[in-house]
Amino acid sequence: MWFPFPLLLVHCSILVVSSGAAESSHTLSVNQTLSDGQTLVSLGQVFELGFFSPGTSRNRYLGMWYRNSTPTYVWVANRNDPIVNSTAELALTQDGSLSLRNGSTSYWSVNTTAGASLQLLDDGNLVLKDGSGNYLWQSYDNITNTLLPGMKLGWNLETGSVRNMTSWASSTDPFSGQFTFSLDPPESPQLVLRKDGQKLYRWGPWNGVRFSGTSELRANPVFDPIFNSSPQEVYYSYQVVEDSVLSRLLLTWDGQIQYLSWRNSNEWTLMVTLQRDECDTYRKCGPFGSCYSGDMICKCLEGFVPTSPQSWNSIDWTDGCTRKWELNCGNGDGFNRDSENLASTSTPPEGVAFPQRRPILVFYPGLLGLGS
Ligand SMILES: *[C@@H]1O[C@H](CO)[C@@H](O)[C@H](O)[C@H]1NC(C)=O
Ligand SMILES: *[C@@H]1O[C@H](CO)[C@@H](O)[C@H](O)[C@H]1NC(C)=O
Ligand SMILES: *[C@@H]1O[C@H](CO)[C@@H](O)[C@H](O)[C@H]1NC(C)=O
Ligand SMILES: *[C@@H]1O[C@H](CO)[C@@H](O)[C@H](O)[C@H]1NC(C)=O
Ligand SMILES: *[C@@H]1O[C@H](CO)[C@@H](O)[C@H](O)[C@H]1NC(C)=O
Ligand SMILES: *[C@@H]1O[C@H](CO)[C@@H](O)[C@H](O)[C@H]1NC(C)=O
């Protein structure tokens, strides 16, 4: 594997990056600093860590991007604490802590007592190791808006830590935005998209084979979804089928969940969008309403009428439905037994409580050259 400069130099100092010739190391050792303008580059030249300003912003952030693509930031350290009208440096101190700071002003830190080196790996993991090579901290545990292949979305039940995705505030502001994407809860795992903490969409629960409601979220020519459930960990992850293809799962600032890949096209290609099936919207039809993908999305269950006919007719279904009359078990009221069979009919009879679902993943095989 080609390595850009002699290892000996790493020991002395991080090389200053002069304009044009970006000579970088992949490791930061104790007593070394990474200043604005310098970068760490993973050994195989896949990822780069350094300072950047997104869009036209003048704020500075420490973050990670692909070395060989248009600027695409996959991780940001100080997303909620930008460096404004100043500069800062990343330092691995003698006591083993990592901090992004200017003098006594700290923008981001990882506190340990044994940090010996910080390394950027080719899979996009930034790891702080102790003298024996154990990970004390890793950026894979600190997901921002991007899930890289191998990252785990979910729960580490031993440490109690949860790894969620949180969108940027806007396309040029890494500040924690309105949308989160998480796997919860571990007992009955569902993938949930929230806006301002309110459930918007959910996929699941995991039925042992796939997330119910997502018949398409399964192995395909581009990536293999992974769901793992053990006493130690419950998580969603994925791996790419072809190692040479860069691939990422992105929660966009406006709440879309996208799989993108980078081939030889010199641009990111949208492979899959977790499509917004209206019926995946949480509580779309309110109490006693049921959801159908189609023109008339919500219907009341048999024996129920819209609670607020006026808003129901103006396509606001959130008030749901109420009983036409009080239950009277001696008068023919009972359970509706047939919903299982009716699930397979394409036009459900009036008032049947079973949602018709479209697949919520949309593939674009033509864009990937898979269609031919
Ligand atoms: C770091 O710097 C301190 C103070 O200059 C020095 O005592 C220590 O030996 C250095 N540690 C390493 C690993 O170079
Ligand atoms: C940064 O500098 C600009 C222009 O000088 C000024 O308007 C702004 O208030 C400063 N921001 C902070 C946080 O100091
Ligand atoms: C700290 O900030 C001052 C003023 O903003 C700047 O002149 C200086 O270069 C900064 N120091 C580092 C280490 O970035
Ligand atoms: C790390 O320690 C510094 C200084 O004691 C403190 O300001 C900072 O909040 C700590 N960071 C974390 C993540 O605990
Ligand atoms: C991840 O980063 C956020 C914000 O910087 C911080 O609050 C959180 O403690 C970090 N988590 C881990 C596991 O490092
Ligand atoms: C992750 O999401 C779960 C479910 O919404 C929430 O309980 C938890 O606080 C979130 N954790 C983090 C670190 O954001």
What can you see in these coordinates?
With 372 residues, this protein is mainly β. The protein has three domains: 17-138, Bulb-type lectin domain (Agglutinin, subunit A); 143-276, Agglutinin, subunit A, CATH 2.90.10.10; 279-368, no CATH class. It has three helices and 29 strands. β20 and β21 form a beta hairpin. It is elongated. Bound molecules: 2-acetamido-2-deoxy-beta-D-glucopyranose (6 copies). Residues 30-31, 94 line the site of one 2-acetamido-2-deoxy-beta-D-glucopyranose (NAG).
Name of the CATH architecture of the largest domain: Orthogonal Prism
In CATH, the topology of the largest domain is named Agglutinin, subunit A
End-to-end CA span: 35 Å
Q: What is the number of helical segments per DSSP (H or I, 4+ residues)?
A: 3
Strand content: 35-45%
What's the Cα radius of gyration?
25 Å
Tally the beta strands. 29
Number of domains: 3
Order the strands across the largest sheet as they lie in space: 13-22-23-24-29
Low-confidence stretches: 1-22, 338-372
Could you estimate the helical fraction of the residues in percent? under 10%
The level-1 CATH class of the largest domain? Mainly Beta
The hetero compounds bound to this protein are: 2-acetamido-2-deoxy-beta-D-glucopyranose
Keywords:
disordered C terminus; receptor; 3 domains; transferase; binds 2-acetamido-2-deoxy-beta-D-glucopyranose; about 375 residues; Agglutinin, subunit A; EC 2.7.11.1; 5-stranded antiparallel β-sheet; 4-stranded antiparallel β-sheet; signal
